[in-house]
Amino acid sequence: MCYCKTIEEKGFKLSTSKWKVLTMSTMFLGVQLCEGKFKPNEKKIASLKAMSVPRDKDQLISFLGLLKYDNHWTLKEEKMESLKNLVI
């Protein structure tokens, strides 16, 4: 394939079984790319909704880490400050 040869010439490796051409939607780095827009991964949203309320400091730190990872879909940094202050 033409694409594979060009990519290999640039020093990259590509597994043809893992890539799609001319598709309307794809998952990339945990983000759904669909019709020119970024959407959150539905599995991650479901896991956030299913989480129980943090009951101690360690659980809160873990929860904040998850929110930080998905920061562009969830709370903004200034809204997280009150939760961060509970950890300190």
From TrEMBL:
InterPro entries: DNA/RNA_pol_sf. This is DUF1524 domain-containing protein. It comes from Strongyloides venezuelensis (Threadworm).
